[in-house]
Design brief:
Radius of gyration: 10 Å
CATH architecture: 2-Layer Sandwich
Low-confidence stretches: none
Distance between the termini: 6 Å
Bound molecules: iron/sulfur cluster
Strand order of the largest sheet: 1-4
Number of strands: 4
Largest sheet: 2 strands, antiparallel
CATH topology: Alpha-Beta Plaits
Number of helices: 2
Shape: globular
Length: 64
């Protein structure tokens, strides 16, 4: 399962980081860093929650 980010939509709010901190990180400048292109094993539900919680719908999953 691959993580897609619509960079035009991401506003660096960090909801994704709070739900799946091993995968998503917002740096001091408010820029999102995605640590894994593919969802790591065992992190599927956290990542799904993060995708659903993104207020700007910037995140999506490919290969669901
Ligand atoms: S929750 Fe959405 S808008 Fe906020 S940092 Fe994550 S991807 Fe970007």
């Amino acid at each position: 399962m691959k993580i897609n980010v619509d960079w035009d939509r991401c506003t660096g709010m960090g909801m994704c980081e709070s739900l799946a901190p091993d995968v998503f990180e917002v740096d001091d400048d408010g820029s999102l860093i995605v640590h894994a292109e593919e969802v790591p094993e065992g992190m599927e539900s956290d990542v799904r929650e993060a995708v659903a919680a993104c207020p700007t719908e910037a995140l999506s999953l490919e290969g669901e």
